[in-house]
Amino acid sequence: MKKISGMVVIGLLALFIGLVISIQITTTQGSDHGGLIPYAKAQGYLEELKQVRTEKDAALQELNELEKRLEKIEAEKANEDFFLANLVSDLEKYKMAAGTVDVKGPGVIITVDDPIPTDEYAGDHSVIMLRYELLLSLVNKLKEAGAEAISINGQRIIVTTEISLAGNNVNINTVPTAPPYIIKAIGSPETIESTLTIRFGIIEQMRNFGLRIQIEQKDEIEIPRFSGILKFRYAKPVKMEE
Amino acid sequence: MKLRILFVFVLCFVIGFSIIIQSRATNGQQLYVSSKTITDYQTTIESEIENIKQIEKLIEKTEKKLEEYRALSTDESNELKDRILQEHEMYKAISGNTDVQGEGVVVFIDDGTRELYEGEDPNVVLVHDMDILAVINELNRSGAEVISVNGQRLTNNSSISCSGYTIRINDQFFARPFVIRAIGDSKRMAAALVGPEGYGTVLNDYGIIFRLSIEDDITINKIAEYQTYQYMTKASKEE
């Protein structure tokens, strides 16, 4: 009797172990697509990214500090002079229209990511990067829906912004970018979302390529300024002839 | 007997342990990632570094300006005012509120006139908003400073969209042909568009009429009305 119960226990245990081993094998097979790299290595990059981002924040803060000081001098001068006061307030408006000011307001956040890699589709190239004209079209649709400020992965979209494939990267404002793309747009959240999600619209088009897209309406988002240097070298203001 | 109980206990322990490890490995994070994920991380890091470089340049520029302002603000003369006026002029031009002129290219795009092959889709020889967008993108890539389409100065908020037989630009309707004017490095822009792999060549191959000319003096008018913003406000950095 004792012998039989012992056998049953051992049998059950063997069954369990077999099950665990088979599960183990299937999970490792499931994630086998292309060259595999241990997650720990990715973690290292993630750490590096975090570090670089804090560095960037520090630089941005310094810039803000400097600009505040500049504005203070401008404001002090403007207090003494009515003409100058007008000039400074106009300047503010033009800077806003040029996209060189951090702005905030209601809007949407769209996340675009590559399809989930499967066995038949090796995840070694990026769908959204090869089809960057989808991003171009998406930005155009956002503007059409009345978006007042747009950024992609922190790059403010201004009138001279290009989205182009350069080598293996998509360059935006000459800065290389990679998926996932996080697109922020300030404007009427409802109008923007319904413009994009209309049947046969841009979002559906993108989803047909297998891209994973999420749209979120937000009460307040912040969009950074254009961080390049704006300067006209060829275009000169037309001189008014009196 | 006691030995057996101990044996079973150890086995149970091992199984419980392995189940925990198993569940950790599967529903937490992946143990392995694809090589694409790594390159994406690398590009993102590169991108942030590029961005920092830009910001550092801006900091340098702002520091210089601050120095200048400080020096000027102690003077009783009107120099600071002139400096602000200069800045004002520059941003006025950049935001599209000044007529500007300079060298650049004029691009003419029209629907194709060739005969269609049997069963060919007529859309192939018609100009669409994406074509115009792609040409503009290409111009921006090669350093265009100011662009207008059919006389409409493009701004940060300009959209271009097909609506039936017409194209809407800055909320005004236009029909074919399309004339895009761009001020900037004319040779570079021309080379980018009409080169062997340029977008102009691609359009021509489809049968769409695409012509480009380099001009020394192009004038682009300012935007028709000053833009007002309903939703966005300046984000103040008060902490």
What does this structure look like?
With 242 residues, chain A is of the alpha+beta class. Chain A has 2 domains: 60 residues; 121 residues, 2-Layer Sandwich (Alpha-Beta Plaits). In chain A, the strands form 2 sheets. Chain A has a 5-stranded antiparallel beta sheet with strand order 4-3-8-2-9. In chain A, a hairpin with a 2-residue loop joins strand 6 and strand 7. Chain A is elongated. The termini of chain A are far apart. The relative contact order of chain A is 0.13. Chain B has 239 residues and is an alpha+beta fold. Chain B has a domain of 121 residues: Protein of unknown function DUF881 (Alpha-Beta Plaits, 2-Layer Sandwich). In chain B, strand 6 and strand 7 form a beta hairpin. The radius of gyration of chain B is 30 Å and the shape is flat. At the A-B interface, helix 1, strand 1, helix 2, helix 3 and strand 2 of A face helix 1, strand 1, helix 2, helix 3 and strand 2 of B.
Which percent band covers the strand fraction of chain B?
A: 15-25%
Give the neighbour order of strands across the main sheet of chain A: 4-3-8-2-9
CATH topology of the largest domain in chain A: Alpha-Beta Plaits
How many structural domains of chain A?
Answer: 2
H/E topology pattern of chain A: HEHHEHHEEEEEEHHEE
Q: For the report, how would you describe the main beta sheet of chain A? A: 5 strands, antiparallel
Structural class label of chain B: alpha+beta
Name of the top-level CATH class of the largest domain in chain A: Alpha Beta
CATH topology of the domain at 100-220 in chain B: Alpha-Beta Plaits
What characteristic shape of chain B results from the CA principal axes?
A: flat
Q: Could you state the CATH homologous superfamily of the domain at 100-220 in chain B?
A: Protein of unknown function DUF881
CATH architecture of the domain at 100-220 in chain B: 2-Layer Sandwich
The separation of the N and C termini of chain A measures 117 Å
- From the alpha-carbon coordinates, what is the Rg of chain B to the nearest angstrom? 30 Å
Low-confidence stretches of chain B: none
Largest interface: A-B, 118 and 105 residues
Largest sheet of chain B: 5 strands, antiparallel
Mean pLDDT across all residues of chain A, rounded? 80
Radius of gyration of chain A: 27 Å
Number of strands of chain A: 10
